[in-house]
Amino acid sequence: MQDVVSQYPDSIRAITADVGKYEDRPIITFQVIEPLHLLVHNVAVLGPVGSLLDVSLEDWRSHIPSNVEGPLFLTQELLPKPVEGSRVIHSSSGAAHQGKKGIGLYCTAKGALFVLGKILKDELAKQGVWFGTVIPGQVDTPMQAEIRAIDPEMMPIVEQWREYKTTGSLSKPEFVAQFLGSLLLEVNGAQLGEREWNIHDSEWQHALQRLALIKVIIP
Fold this sequence. Notes:
Layout: H1 2-7, H2 25-31, E1 36-41, H3 57-78, E2 82-91, H4 104-125, E3 130-135, H5 142-148, H6 158-166, H7 173-185, H8 189-192, E4 196-198, H9 202-217
Parallel strand pairs: 1-2, 2-3, 3-4
Helix pairs in contact: 2-3, 3-4
């Protein structure tokens, strides 16, 4: 993030805060300049991993604030800074719709965020704010490294995630940024909440292939 900020010092300002902490969210809201046109909730934590039967109350309380409470309450606290036509995006996952052994807590939180988003879509629409959900897929980020380090006995499908890395199947963050940029700036607002926007949809895969080709031709 600091590298990006250094490249665009007049356009980007980094704010250090934990969206999962009640006392940190005002740090963000106080520094956001009105009007707020675009809001992307992309923060998530993976662990603790393991069986849901072994999840403690402390585990639950360390996980849910970042993955569920942050997007809801930060959105609340930022209102009314979004204006008519502003857009709010939740970053979702296939884990919201299918439980995976070993990351049951993460799947539970993503499922809750999905339902939360469906309700927020209608409530924000009354204020003229468009809402959408995006599934960015498997992205080459530190969370993927965290997944690959999980014991296969705790999460049997971890070998599939390791294969994503070795075969170069993980999406580059730059491509995902292009994907998000299209949703935020090009998709009609009324269409934004009609579906989950999945980066693996054929229309986006073709776009990513073109971007990859351009990058090869014009390094």
